[in-house]
Amino acid sequence: MATGKFRPTLKEVSRQAGVSIATASRALADNPAVAASTRERIQQLASDLGYRANAQARALRSSRSNTIGVVVPSLINHYFAAMVTEIQRSASNAGLATIITNSNEDATTMSRSLEFLTSHGVDGIVCVPNEECANQLEDLQKQGMPVVLVDRELPAGSTIPSVTSNSQPGIDAAVKLLAHNNAVPIGYLSGPMDTSTGRERLDSFKAACANSKIGEQLVFLGGYEQSVGFDGATKLLNQGAKTLFAGDSMMTIGVIEACHKAGLVIGKDLSVIGFDTHPLFALQPRPLTVIDQNVEQLAQRAVSILTELLAGTVPSVTKTTIPTALIHRESIINSTLRKKDELSNE
Amino acid sequence: MATGKFRPTLKEVSRQAGVSIATASRALADNPAVAASTRERIQQLASDLGYRANAQARALRSSRSNTIGVVVPSLINHYFAAMVTEIQRSASNAGLATIITNSNEDATTMSRSLEFLTSHGVDGIVCVPNEECANQLEDLQKQGMPVVLVDRELPAGSTIPSVTSNSQPGIDAAVKLLAHNNAVPIGYLSGPMDTSTGRERLDSFKAACANSKIGEQLVFLGGYEQSVGFDGATKLLNQGAKTLFAGDSMMTIGVIEACHKAGLVIGKDLSVIGFDTHPLFALQPRPLTVIDQNVEQLAQRAVSILTELLAGTVPSVTKTTIPTALIHRESIINSTLRKKDELSNE
Fold first, then answer.
1. Which of A62, A170, A258, B334 makes an SS bond possible with A324, Cβ 3.0 to 4.6 Å?
2. Which residue has the higher pLDDT, A40 or A227?
């Protein structure tokens, strides 16, 4: 077994119990060939050591499943669909198959998925965590299941390796551009405060506004759904926003929807900054300027760390961050043209 | 166990072997407490009866996993992401969890996924089949695994229940509209000929052209990818197509990309018929007229048939088809305006 120090092997259980591997195996299978008192003692020891039934099944099969589980919060969100697809490609290159579960942003669904994956033979898990499942994920790691978090991380204190975006470089560049073009006030559509991505991006936005000395801007506390983006965009436009800045893919679609329904032409009547690289964002009449998360690299690093864990290596870093970047297209209004327009309207 | 007549139970194996359930169980676990010759005999019998290791594990656990497996060919294709999401919602309503595998249109990947799902405790499978996996799927069904095909079906002769779209109503209405508007020649981007959807939609298109008496039209034999749609659209435009008609979601994005790059405004410079209901198709400057497959109903019916199979009921119909419909928006050029344009150009 390659999972080394984390997951106690059958051999380790048998060694500590002072019996042969065969006896330990039989005892854990509750085989009456082993005396009842010995069986009980070995089962108790295995439980204390965090030895898992699935690890047992695996040892009995003398092989790994060579399959990893991936847990994401949505699949209609193109960013996560692209992430899963790239995780699967990377895993396949490492000789691993992939099975996927979709939590639909629901902690109970995620909890059940983790339970199923763990008890049905995956060798490791890549998870976009719901914070309500923090304890379960920590327990899984303690019990020796290799786990890597991707996209989101758990609040401080978690020792589970994570691969997340650093939104600061992309958001800094975007706000600097908007400030330069005087495309203010900016209306920022924030992700939810119970996700690390929601908090981290809002912090980046506020820091970028301070850096660019444009003062406090409009913020809508939203969620990762198109309908929420639509509502937020509508509200921010009513508050006088000249730029809509979406904090994720789904809210970007909501922003496009709100502009479409209000008859506003993006890049002409208002500026828009989108998030992530959906193919149709680049095919808008004025292609969207976006913050790009480098989803391929996020996925590849997560798989790379998981394969290290599967090989029994302790990763050298717990937190890996991948910088975002601004992809400048045509959805930001040129300030010079803007001023001319304003003059001609006066 | 609810899977009734299809899957031989441990009890059935023990009955036919003339031994107790406990002995049959031990023999199948290769427990040396059972004489080697008896073990061999029972193992052979179980194999002949199609008794599966996972069924055994399940019987030993005395419970079902209440989890279904879903196998789709892509997740970055929004149509399949929406299908999986709706399958999961419907399954959840029926008290079932869902795990997902993505075959990436690859038969080997699908085959491994089916193997993993079957041997790791799912109660049933909803599958968008690759035709190269036909035998494996038929075998699974014979061995008692409840299987339902969705979106695509297997060539004639398969007895696995399927839920597919009937493209004829939607395509008929589209071609009728195009003929009425004289938006010809039509360039049709067909799906691949090794999928039932590719063949069925092309047949529907040809029948619709015959019905509308517009004669043979341009056809590009493509595949379910954006890049293929882009290449096909470019080729068909060069051949003089006045309308591009995409045979799926991904090729629709490729068509939008080709028009974008050629500087052609959809609904003004050419007509476009898309396929499926991606939210951004309706948010194009001239919203796309599309063929809608009713993905929710496809998903719901597939789950409903699977739950019947799980309850041991034999479904009354093997083939279920859901009609497509034309959603008429603004991407078809009005023939009256067109004629005026043509006159002014002369």
1. A170
2. A227
Chain B nearest-CA distance from A44, in A, is 20
Residue A253, chain B, CB below 8 Å: the answer is: yes
CB-hemisphere CA count at 13 Å for A143? Answer: 22
**B260 interaction partners in chain A (CB closer than 8 Å):** 283
Instruction: Say whether both B304 and B253 belong to one domain.
Output: no
Rg (CA), chain B: 25
A286 lies in the same domain as A312 = no
CA A85 centroid distance within chain: 14
A-chain CB neighbours of B116 within 8 Å are 65, 67, 97, 99
- Dump pLDDT digits (tens) for B39-49: 889 888 988 88
Q: Which chain B positions have a beta carbon within 8 Å of A102's beta carbon?
A: 84-85, 88, 98, 100
- Quote the DSSP letter at residue A123: S
Q: What domain count does chain B have?
A: 3
Task: Kindly state the tokens that stand for A80.
Answer: 């996560």
Which of B31, B117, B256 is nearest residue A31 as measured by Cβ atoms? B31
A119 pLDDT more than 60: yes
- Run of H or E including B97: strand B97-102
> Which residues make Cβ contacts (< 8 Å) with residue B30, sequence separation at least 6?
B39, B43
Interface ipTM: 0.82
| Largest CA-CA distance found in chain A, in angstroms, rounded | 95
* B339 has a pLDDT exceeding 70: no
One domain, residues A225 and A116: no
Pick from B97, B101, B112: which is nearest to A116 by CB?
B97
Checking if the pLDDT of A56 tops 70, the result is: no
Nearest to B116 among A31, A99, A253 (CB): A99
Q: What domain range includes position A145?
A: 67-165+296-321
Q: Given a cut of 80, is residue A5 above it in pLDDT?
A: no
Q: Does B34 touch chain A (CB under 8 A)?
A: no
- B117 contacts on A by Cβ (under 8 Å): 99
Evaluate whether residue A3 is within a structural domain.
no
The per-residue pLDDT for A52 is: 65
- Chain center to CA of A8: 29
Q: What is the pLDDT of residue A47?
A: 80
> Does residue A314 or residue B59 have the better pLDDT?
A314
B35 assigned to some structural domain: yes
Residue A291 tokens, joined: 């913050």
Quick one: tokens of A319?
């937190």
In this complex, is the C-beta atom of A238 within 8 Å of any C-beta atom belonging to chain B?
A: no
Query: Which of A23, A60, A64, A76 has the highest number of chain B CBs within 10 A, making it the mutation to test binding with B?
Result: A76
Q: What pLDDT, on a 0 to 100 scale, did the predictor assign at position A58?
A: 44
A339 CB burial (10 A radius; 0-12, 13-18, 19+): exposed
Give domain status of residue B81, yes or no.
yes
In this prediction, residue A10 carries a pLDDT of 77
pLDDT mean across residues, chain B: 90
Cα gap B115→A89, rounded to integer Å: 19
Confirm whether A111 is domain-assigned.
yes
Is the same domain home to A37 and A27?
yes
Query: What pLDDT, in 10s, does the model give residues B248-269?
Result: 999 999 999 999 999 999 999 9
Q: Distance (Å) from the C-alpha of residue A34 to the closest C-alpha of chain B? A: 11
